[in-house]
Specification:
mainly alpha
Length: 73
């Protein structure tokens, strides 16, 4: 620490401010991690939905093919 009382006070204030910034960054980091986890869960749900939709589409195509086949027969 500097010998000058004003410089010492300034250094202490700067140290306090830096501590606050570091604490804020830790909170932000936690928020970002939570968002990423939420996004991963959303992506997984979306992948499941897409897979189910493809199965539904395949079923519909199959049924329509059967109907068309019966009409032309």
């Amino acid at each position: 620490m500097p010998e000058d009382p004003i410089a010492r006070e300034g250094a202490a204030q700067l140290n306090d401010k830096l501590s606050e910034v570091i604490a804020d960054l830790r909170v932000i980091k936690g928020d970002v991690l939570a968002i990423r986890l939420g996004q991963a869960a959303t992506d997984q749900k979306l992948d499941t939905f897409i897979a189910e939709q493809r199965k539904t589409n395949e079923t519909l195509v199959s049924l329509l093919s059967e109907l068309v086949g019966k009409r032309t027969a």
